[in-house]
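Hi all, a correction to my earlier message: I attached the wrong file for DUF2505 domain-containing protein. Here's the right sequence:
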Amino acid sequence: MSRRIEHSSKYTVPAEKVHEAVTSEQYWRDRIVAVGGPGAAIEELTVRDETVAVTMSQIIAAEHLPSMVSKVVNGDIVIKRSETMAPFKDGKATGTFSAHVDGVPARIEGTQVLTGDENSATLEIEGEVEVKIPFLGGKIESAIVDEVVRLIQAEQDFTREWIAK
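and the right structure:
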């Protein structure tokens, strides 16, 4: 069974300005430093024709893992994340996101949709988390959803601040 991820972020700047930020190479380099955590790194970053594709890794130290996760995974975990965003056309841009941990039967994936006009923007994120571990999967999924939403909010707060600068 999987758990849904749903999050909406509002911006008080034009949607095209938000899109311009998230398709900027410097934005991603600044974001991984500000919100990525110790050991976070961009592994691949392609910006072309108002489109971005980024792959990054983030480390969660073993001492910060919930006890139910520590029962399944020994040591630190390295999360591989990918995000994309297509060009902004007709008031909308779409993208994807995914994450996985090597050797763990779990997946996180979904879509992101940026909409808006010259006054404001909204980024809608929808996806799901699935952990295929008997008995513990549902509890781990819930914990992951909570952490993913917390991380998305931190990244969106960073985006607001980055645009303001």
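Sorry for the mix-up. The chain has a mean pLDDT of 90.
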